[in-house]
Amino acid sequence: MAVEAVILMKQKKVILRQLKNQLTSILNLRGSFIVLPRTDKNRLKALDQTISIGGLEVDIVNTANEEFS
């Protein structure tokens, strides 16, 4: 059971790392759009919605606490 939990946490860690990289790219893209003289508000809204990665970090901590406490 503990081995499965470690594998699960490793998978979540990889996903979280990839999402953080994507978040950096999206924030850079959003920043480049904001400085333009004309900005499409719908595109900014779509980027803002994409920015939230939610509670994945909390999920990793909860899994660790459940399996190893």
Name its key features:
3 helices, mainly alpha
Summarize the structure.
The protein is an all-alpha fold and 69 residues long.
Textual characterization of the structure:
This protein is mainly alpha-helical. It has one domain. The chain is 83% helix and 0% strand. The protein has three helices and no strands. Helix 1 packs antiparallel against helix 3. It is rod-shaped, with a radius of gyration of 17 Å. 0% of the residues are buried. The model has no long low-confidence stretch (mean pLDDT 81).
Topology:
Blueprint (H helix, E strand, L loop, with lengths): L1 H33 L6 H11 L4 H13 L1
Helix pairs in contact: 1-2, 1-3
Terminal CA distance reads 13 Å
Q: Mind summarizing the main beta sheet?
A: none
Helix fraction bin: over 70%
How does the helix and strand content classify structurally? mainly alpha
* DSSP strand tally: 0
SSE string = HHH
Q: Determine the number of helices (DSSP H or I, runs of at least 4 residues).
A: 3
Low-pLDDT runs: none
Number of domains: 1
Question: What is the radius of gyration?
Answer: 17 Å
